[in-house]
Amino acid sequence: MNRKGMSAVGISAVVYGVIPMLTMFLYAFGMDAIAVAFYRFFLILPIVLLITKMQGISLRLPWKQVVSIFVYAGFFSGSTMLLLNLAYNYISIGTATTLHFLYPVFVILICAFYYHDVIDARMKKILLIVLLGILFFLDKGSKGSMIGIVLSMISAVTYAIYLVQLEKRNFAQMNPLVLSFYISLCTCILIFIVNFFTHSIHFMLTLQELSLFVILSLCSITALGMLQYGSRLLGAKYTSLFSLLEPITSIVTGILFLKEEIVAGKLIGCALILFAIMYLALGKTKKEETEKRE
């Protein structure tokens, strides 16, 4: 197992796991999920422009490649965020997020049935452990509509497609800043279209709000870049599984900084997912070492 790839996806997952905490601070200012998502991705654009200008990196791409990024990466990444935010209107955030984190299952199904990748017995065992761990994250007393459940499940599918396309269409080989720019641009366009119906976005930000959004955008750039780099080295299946460090990070930050209640079920879920990730990493490493000796 490529250690650089594991580390990159791990860093991405931890940063993504911190983002909900920052988002909660912005909700306290009276913003909704659509407005927060818009500014989060909109501010990525000038930040990336500045960084690429300083580093002499060109953002120019062939028109066909731009369209490909919009259709296969930007659309599915942006749709994931919109679907998940819409689901929050119908079911609890905990339930919606838990259902969304079923995306590794869909990544493996897409790779197996559409791209005919081989799924070995070890991967199947790990997937079962992960599924059991995710079930412990469910809010036991949560009640919600079928609409919210369906939206959350579709968000898992769209994110799975996004992860698979990173690998299969070689988006993972691109410069991370360039890819982040076009994905963020596509996401902003999608959100702006939705805003015509929700009227969520207001264009007057306080200094506090702007500062939080800059931090949120920097976190997003880091997470997107590390996820892309990790996907380049590991492929979609392993990337999706190592990304499950994200909900664990969210739970830890919630307990430490938002004074959320410590729930035994979620701790068991965290332990199962950590065990699955370690089993995946150690097993793959031993296999590679055996192949090298042979």
How is the topology of this model organized?
Layout: H1 3-27, H2 33-42, H3 44-55, H4 63-87, H5 93-100, H6 103-113, H7 121-135, H8 146-168, H9 176-198, H10 207-234, H11 236-242, H12 245-257, H13 264-293
Helix pairs in contact: 1-10, 1-12, 2-9, 2-10, 3-9, 4-8, 4-9, 5-8, 6-8, 6-11, 7-13, 8-11, 9-10, 10-11, 12-13
Can you walk through the features of this model?
The protein is an all-alpha fold and 294 residues long. It has one domain (3-293). The chain is 78% helix and 0% strand. It is built from 13 helices and no strands. The protein has helices spanning 3-27, 33-42, 44-55, 63-87, 93-100, 103-113, 121-135, 146-168, 176-198, 207-234, 236-242, 245-257, 264-293. Helix 6 runs antiparallel to helix 11 (236-242).
Which features characterize this protein?
294 residues; mainly alpha; 13 helices
The backbone outline, from C-alpha atoms, is globular
Task: State Rg.
Answer: 19 Å
Helical fraction: over 70%
Count of distinct structural domains = 1
Low-confidence stretches: none
Total helical elements: 13
Mean pLDDT: 88
Strand tally, please?
0
The computed structural class is mainly alpha
Please give the largest β-sheet: none
Terminal Cα span: 17 Å
The H-and-E topology, N to C, reads as HHHHHHHHHHHHH
Strand content: under 5%
What's a concise summary of this model?
By secondary structure, this protein is mainly alpha-helical.
